[in-house]
Protein backbone atom coordinates (compact mmCIF):
# COMPACT_ATOMS: atom_id res chain seq x y z
CA UNK A 1 0.00 0.00 0.00
CA UNK A 2 1.61 3.26 -1.07
CA UNK A 3 1.22 6.59 0.68
CA UNK A 4 -1.39 7.57 -1.93
CA UNK A 5 -3.59 4.60 -0.98
CA UNK A 6 -3.70 5.42 2.73
CA UNK A 7 -6.95 6.64 4.16
CA UNK A 8 -6.77 8.98 7.13
CA UNK A 9 -9.32 9.57 9.87
CA UNK A 10 -11.18 12.26 7.91
CA UNK A 11 -12.44 9.79 5.33
CA UNK A 12 -9.81 9.64 2.60
CA UNK A 13 -8.82 13.24 2.34
CA UNK A 14 -5.20 12.43 1.47
CA UNK A 15 -6.24 10.70 -1.73
CA UNK A 16 -8.67 13.44 -2.74
CA UNK A 17 -6.05 16.13 -2.15
CA UNK A 18 -3.61 14.26 -4.38
CA UNK A 19 -6.28 13.90 -7.06
CA UNK A 20 -7.11 17.59 -6.76
CA UNK A 21 -3.46 18.61 -7.04
CA UNK A 22 -3.07 16.36 -10.07
CA UNK A 23 -6.16 17.91 -11.65
CA UNK A 24 -4.87 21.44 -11.07
CA UNK A 25 -1.45 20.51 -12.44
CA UNK A 26 -2.93 18.99 -15.60
CA UNK A 27 -5.20 22.01 -16.03
CA UNK A 28 -2.32 24.42 -15.54
CA UNK A 29 -0.16 22.63 -18.09
CA UNK A 30 -3.03 22.49 -20.60
CA UNK A 31 -3.72 26.21 -20.09
CA UNK A 32 -0.08 27.15 -20.62
CA UNK A 33 0.20 24.96 -23.74
CA UNK A 34 -2.99 26.42 -25.25
CA UNK A 35 -1.83 29.96 -24.49
CA UNK A 36 1.56 29.31 -26.08
CA UNK A 37 -0.15 27.88 -29.18
CA UNK A 38 -2.29 31.02 -29.55
CA UNK A 39 0.69 33.34 -29.02
CA UNK A 40 2.85 31.42 -31.52
CA UNK A 41 0.05 31.55 -34.09
CA UNK A 42 0.27 35.34 -33.98
CA UNK A 43 3.97 35.92 -33.36
CA UNK A 44 5.34 33.41 -35.89
CA UNK A 45 3.57 35.14 -38.80
CA UNK A 46 3.71 31.84 -40.72
CA UNK A 47 -0.03 31.25 -40.89
CA UNK A 48 -2.37 33.25 -43.11
CA UNK A 49 -4.70 35.58 -41.21
CA UNK A 50 -7.73 33.29 -41.37
CA UNK A 51 -5.71 30.35 -40.04
CA UNK A 52 -4.28 32.43 -37.19
CA UNK A 53 -7.77 33.62 -36.23
CA UNK A 54 -9.08 30.05 -36.39
CA UNK A 55 -6.19 28.80 -34.25
CA UNK A 56 -6.83 31.51 -31.66
CA UNK A 57 -10.57 30.75 -31.60
CA UNK A 58 -10.06 26.99 -31.21
CA UNK A 59 -7.41 27.50 -28.52
CA UNK A 60 -9.77 29.87 -26.69
CA UNK A 61 -12.65 27.40 -26.76
CA UNK A 62 -10.38 24.59 -25.59
CA UNK A 63 -9.04 26.90 -22.87
CA UNK A 64 -12.58 27.52 -21.61
CA UNK A 65 -13.33 23.78 -21.61
CA UNK A 66 -10.08 23.11 -19.74
CA UNK A 67 -10.97 25.73 -17.12
CA UNK A 68 -14.41 24.22 -16.61
CA UNK A 69 -13.11 20.67 -16.44
CA UNK A 70 -9.90 20.88 -14.43
CA UNK A 71 -10.38 23.96 -12.25
CA UNK A 72 -14.14 24.18 -11.69
CA UNK A 73 -14.57 20.37 -11.84
CA UNK A 74 -17.66 20.64 -14.03
CA UNK A 75 -18.50 17.57 -16.08
CA UNK A 76 -21.42 16.89 -18.37
CA UNK A 77 -22.24 13.58 -16.68
CA UNK A 78 -22.83 13.13 -12.99
CA UNK A 79 -23.53 16.84 -12.53
CA UNK A 80 -26.75 18.30 -11.14
CA UNK A 81 -29.14 19.33 -13.93
CA UNK A 82 -29.53 22.82 -12.44
CA UNK A 83 -25.76 23.34 -12.64
CA UNK A 84 -25.74 22.29 -16.29
CA UNK A 85 -28.68 24.59 -17.06
CA UNK A 86 -26.75 27.47 -15.52
CA UNK A 87 -23.71 26.68 -17.64
CA UNK A 88 -25.75 26.35 -20.83
CA UNK A 89 -27.54 29.65 -20.13
CA UNK A 90 -24.21 31.37 -19.54
CA UNK A 91 -22.89 30.00 -22.84
CA UNK A 92 -26.04 31.21 -24.61
CA UNK A 93 -25.64 34.72 -23.20
CA UNK A 94 -21.95 34.80 -24.19
CA UNK A 95 -22.74 33.62 -27.73
CA UNK A 96 -25.45 36.28 -28.07
CA UNK A 97 -23.16 39.02 -26.77
CA UNK A 98 -20.21 38.06 -28.96
CA UNK A 99 -22.38 37.40 -32.00
CA UNK A 100 -24.25 40.68 -31.55
CA UNK A 101 -21.01 42.60 -31.17
CA UNK A 102 -19.56 41.07 -34.33
CA UNK A 103 -22.79 41.79 -36.20
CA UNK A 104 -22.90 45.43 -35.08
CA UNK A 105 -19.20 46.00 -35.83
CA UNK A 106 -19.59 44.39 -39.27
CA UNK A 107 -22.57 46.60 -40.02
CA UNK A 108 -20.66 49.70 -38.92
CA UNK A 109 -17.73 48.71 -41.12
CA UNK A 110 -20.05 48.26 -44.10
CA UNK A 111 -21.63 51.68 -43.48
CA UNK A 112 -18.22 53.35 -43.25
CA UNK A 113 -17.05 51.96 -46.60
SS field, number of helical segments: 3
Tell me the strand percentage band. under 5%
Structure class: mainly alpha
Low-confidence stretches: 1-8
Q: How many independent structural domains?
A: 2
Radius of gyration from the alpha-carbon trace, in angstroms: 20 Å
Helix fraction bin: over 70%
Cα(first) to Cα(last) distance is: 72 Å
Please, what is the average pLDDT? Answer: 85
Topology order in helix (H) and strand (E) letters: HHH
Label the overall shape. flat
**What oligomeric arrangement do these chains adopt?**
single chain
Number of strands: 0
Largest β sheet strand count, sense and barrel closure: none
Write structural notes for this entry:
Heterooctamer of two A chains, two B chains, two C chains and two D chains. With 113 residues, this protein is an all-alpha fold. It folds into two domains: 1-73, no CATH class; 77-113. The protein has three helices and no strands. It has helices spanning 13-43, 49-71, 81-112. Mean pLDDT is 85; it is low at 1-8.
Amino acid sequence: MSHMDKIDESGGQMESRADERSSYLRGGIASVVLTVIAVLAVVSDVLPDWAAWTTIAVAGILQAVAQLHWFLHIRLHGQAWEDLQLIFFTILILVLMVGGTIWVMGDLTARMM
